[in-house]
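Batch job 17 of 40 flagged for manual review because the log was empty.
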Amino acid sequence: MTAIAWNRDAVASNARSSPHADQINNDDWESDAQPYYARASFMKMCLPALLYSVLFKSALRVLSYVPFNSLLRIDPSLLRPEDCFMIQNSSPPPIAIITGSNTGVGFETAQGLAQRGYHVILACRSRQKGLDAAEKINKHIITSCTEQNSKIAGKASFLQPLDLASFASIRSFCKAFSEKYDQLNILVNNAGINSQGDVTEDGLEMCFQSNFVGHFLLTKLLIPCLQNAKNTYKNNEYKDEAGRIVNLSSVTHHFAPSNERTHHPNDGGSLPENNGIHDKHFWLGSAMPGGSTATYRESKLASILFTIELNKRFGSEKGIRSISVNPGSVSSDIWRNESAFTQKIYRMVYLTPKQGASTSIAGSVGNFPIDAIYLQPYWQPIIFRSKMHSAIQSFQRSYPLPFPMFEMLGPYISHSVTVPRLPADGCGGYKSAGQLWDVCDNLTAD
């Protein structure tokens, strides 16, 4: 038996005896009310979404001579200073870690937080790319502050390489951070890949570990530093918080059904057949090589459920708040393996990395509604507001569960609180979230 197969046996055995094992009564799961779209539906919606976006934006340009944008509330949302964390003139400055921050949305998020006064640690695989990105951000901040005749804000730095496809690398990074800093104000789990099929050194599926399981371990190891942090709002009516956790998700979470798998890895039967629900067996299949052909989408759903479980475990009493965010369809480095023609099309219709970073920045520093778990950047053609409507002006725009096509492309509004698509587990996603946690806890155990 190979080392990987042995690991699967151990994980499956641990999962069966997990704290949530007593919640696996399948009769409680609304498996017949499958809330997710079939994977094939994603491609079918791409062209209509493109046509909708192009035609709508063209119409807005034609109607620019009337206050059409204001009437439909299409103007981008603004983050008001009183609704954001306050940067106090203290030493040391507040600390933020952003994974995958040497390029794309992660880079723009890092630069945005550094401009706000944070000491941002760029957590990425390549030392040289991390150092180059830090230098670029620091030069930009100095130039910007000089032009505006203002005090130098925050800064960016590189600690050491972080490879999310290696548990050893993650543990080494967290050890180095904890030895140097005792608190962490913001953690943005941004890094991700969109290719699958490879196997990590830990014996897991590459995409699912890089996008989610690695971030799970990183977050878990940094919880003590997040608990030590203190985030204060300028508006003293808002309660102080501990650290903030932002998990990058995607519109593709709408297309992560649990009833389309036909097999599990050929591992001698150590994993049970998937039963069509987002339970522990489903998540084991996502993590195991060959267990799923849609691990990118499943990793983005996992990020939302991770947010739910983090808030449940560390929210009300320990003061840590978590939010999942969809940056939108962004022309970023994640598409570097596509053809030059395809990348050109993406640059024409997709958001810029700076626009894509708006939900991450809002989630990092903003006082979003207490029951919010998901932000996305597109205006929705929906008449009725979500029940999560907030009195906080920076987050007044909110939407109920959208039709996925309108979350792929469309008018950019920076950020809006939106209801995500959650598993039909009879508990609003909490049951699936708890079992996902147990599976990852066992996968990452020493």
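Reviewer: the log was empty due to a logging misconfiguration, but the result itself is present. The longest helix spans residues 39-62. Unflagging and moving on to job 18.
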